[in-house]
Amino acid sequence: MNYFVTQLCNSFSTDSNFWSGIIGALVGSATGGAIAYIMQALSLKEARKTRKDELLLAQQTLATSMLLKVVRIHGNCSAISGHMKTCWARLSDEKIEPWQVVTPFSNFPAPVFFTTEEQTMLFGLKDNKTFEITIDLDVAHNSLIDGTKAMSAERRLLSSNFENETFEGSVGSSTIDKKTYLRLKPKMMEVNDLAQYTMSESQKIEQEALAAMSSLAVLFKKSLGLTLKTELKHKLN
Description:
Blueprint: H1 2-88, H2 98-101, H3 116-124, H4 128-134, H5 137-159, E1 166-168, E2 171-173, H6 178-224
C-alpha cells in the first residue's frame, strides 16, 4: 500500500513538473510574440510618419517653386505694362498712332514653365478655382514675351526707314512722301496691333497673376502649412 501511494505521488510530481514546463514555454512564447508584434507595429507607424513627412516636404518644395514662378510672372507683366503705359501717355493727339510713341524693349525676361510635378501637386490639393486661375499663367506669360519681342523687332525695322530731321527732347521728327507712307502703312498697322496686344495682355496677365498669388498663398498655408512673404522688384528696359 505504501509503495502504491509513493508511486502515485511521484507520478503527480512528474506530471506537475511536465505541465509547468509546457505552460512556461507557452507563456514565454506568447510574451515574446507580443513584444515582437508591438515592436513591429511601432516600426511601421514610424515608417508611415516618415513617409508622410517626406511627402509633405516634397509638396512644400513644389509649392514654393510654383509660387515664386507666379511672382516672376506678375513682376514681368507689371514691368511690361508700366513701360507700355508710359508710352501710351504720349498719345495726346488723335493723329498720333501707337507705332510712333512705343519704344522697343532691349531686355526680355526668360520664359516660365510650370513642371508636371508642380501641376500635379496643385491639382492634388483639390482647389478647382485656384487651379484654374493658375495653371495656364506660364503659357500666357511666354506668349506675351514672344509678342513683346515681335513688337520691338518690327518697331526697330520700321524706324530704320526714317531719318530724323529735328529732335525735341528724345522725340525725333521726320517727313515722308505719300508713296513711302503707303509702302510702310502695313508695317505701321502691324506695329500698332502688336503694341495694342502687348498693352492689353500685359495688364490682363498682371491682374490674373496677382489673383493667383493671393489664392495660392492661402491654399498653401491651409493645406501645407506653408507661409511665404514675397516682395516684387522687377524692372525692364
